[in-house]
Design a protein that fits this description.
This protein is α/β, with parallel strands linked by helices. Helix 6 packs across helix 7 and helix 8 packs antiparallel against helix 9. 44% of the residues lie in helices and 13% in strands.
Length: 226
């Protein structure tokens, strides 16, 4: 249920989503604000810093979602939320999903601010970025070794190493989305984590946020090779 502006960025993201087989029946195009986008500053080691311009997806939501949108949520297999839309919208969505018995995953990245307790109480699975992980565990997350140690404090997670890291942009999104796909398909939590780790491992080996996101065949081929 995203919002895009009547601009080149809106056309680009719409075409990219359609090319990926995403149904856009509930996408809204507005003239009141530009399409949200991210400015990625890639470092030589593949790490990045991102400046987020919220645009339409942050500023054009109604006070209350329509009944048609709510019905889509009630019939969903899973709801994946992220914080580049207002927390108030995420809370509305999570409440409806929770009432309908639909699992809710929250990708904690996007906004470097505390997550409202009301939202956290509605979430079944939290997927934090590095800074959120540091706040949750009280441990440093400045290196891969520190991140691994902090993650193990939360959950013993499968690791699928990448032979090279070109660009980490989109890796967290890829991981969370792949986990959601595996979960809605009925895989165990361990299998979901392994599927997600493989997808993210492939992602960091390709430059660009959208081009780096692997398809199912590539993920399955990697898993079969391990």
């Amino acid at each position: 249920m995203p919002y895009v502006g009547e601009d080149a960025h809106g056309k680009l993201i719409t075409e990219a989503l359609e090319g990926g087989g995403v149904l856009l029946d509930h996408m809204n195009t507005v003239s009141a604000a530009p399409t949200g986008h991210a400015v990625v500053m890639l470092q030589s080691d593949g790490q990045n810093s991102i400046i987020i311009v919220g645009g339409a997806n942050m500023s054009c939501w109604p006070d209350a979602l329509s009944e048609d949108d709510l019905e889509v949520l009630r019939n969903a297999g899973i709801v994946l939320l992220q914080r580049e839309i207002p927390d108030s919208v995420n809370i509305q969505v999570a409440k409806v999903a929770k009432t309908a018995g639909v699992p809710v995953i929250l990708d904690a990245g996007g906004v470097d601010a505390p997550i409202p307790l009301e939202l956290l109480n509605l979430v079944d699975i939290l997927s934090p970025n590095e800074s959120e992980l540091a706040r949750l565990t009280g441990k440093p997350t400045e290196s891969f070794e520190q991140i691994t140690h902090a993650v193990k404090k939360c959950h013993e997670m499968p690791v699928v190493s990448a032979p090279r890291v070109l660009d980490t942009t989109g890796a967290g999104d890829t991981y969370t989305a792949a986990f959601a796909v595996a979960l809605v398909e009925g895989k165990s939590k361990k299998e979901c984590l392994r599927f997600a780790a493989a997808a993210a491992s492939l992602c960091v080996q390709v430059k660009g946020a959208i081009p780096s996101m692997p398809d199912r065949k590539k993920v399955l081929d990697l898993l079969q090779s391990l």
